[in-house]
Here is the input.
Amino acid sequence: MKPGNILTILIFLSTSHSWGSTQFTFKDFKFSPGKTCETGWIDSSFCEATMPKPWTESEYQAMSTLIATVYEGKLPHFLAQILENGFDTFYRYSFSFQRRDQNKYERLDFVGLWVWGVDKSINIADGILNSGDSPLLDPYSKIDIRVFSVFHEMVHAFSMKLAESKEFLDLIGWVPEGTGHIIRGIAPEEMVLAMTQMKKLSNEKKYEELLKLNREFGIKHGFPSAYSMTIPQECFADLAAYIYLDPKVDEYLKPEWIAWFRKNVLN
Ligand SMILES: [Zn+2]
Here is the structure.
């Protein structure tokens, strides 16, 4: 399995809260080949960075099966808000990409799944789908890590604003530091050390050890993962994903965090 199944990126999007009472399901989302440089992308570097692919029937089935159990008949407001925000299509690419200065695109080999606020897309690269019959499992809940990854991205599509709200930052203990935030009571050097170790494991393709360290470091500090301690947006997405998907989450997270997410996100 490629590390794209583990690492995700996020990009700005805006949101509003005015959902109706319609019950949405995962089937309300569309599956489309990725976009091409001929269909509106403004720089040919896009075509060198990635390649759009059609969804094969088996990929579609795998993805549907993977996610249907998570969403079917559940979380109507969460799904309705994602659709209202314009994130209604899963696009398929060979590789993930990011846009740099002057609209130059470059390949990101370590990302398998990402949301992009520019065109309101949920994007999937080969890495997330090509793990065969033995996918990586979360070391604590034993749930397929791809399920966490998809859920995590959907939380970004649900709201970036809430992750930047004073209410959320105060709840968790994020305090301003320089141009960003740090978690009150966590030594920055300790974070740097954990991130360095994780990067090393990723480079060595030791993904099971990477997942274990990610979870152990986070849980030691009362978080679900080390990744959730990097920036508020990733904290928000990882907390929501683990609170919803890990049945053991009340063993290591504060009850008031769990209650806040169930009230404000997971409904
Ligand atoms: Zn993320």
About this structure: The radius of gyration is 18 Å. The pocket of zinc ion is lined by residues 8, 10, 152, 156, 234, 237 (CB under 6 Å). The mean pLDDT is 83.
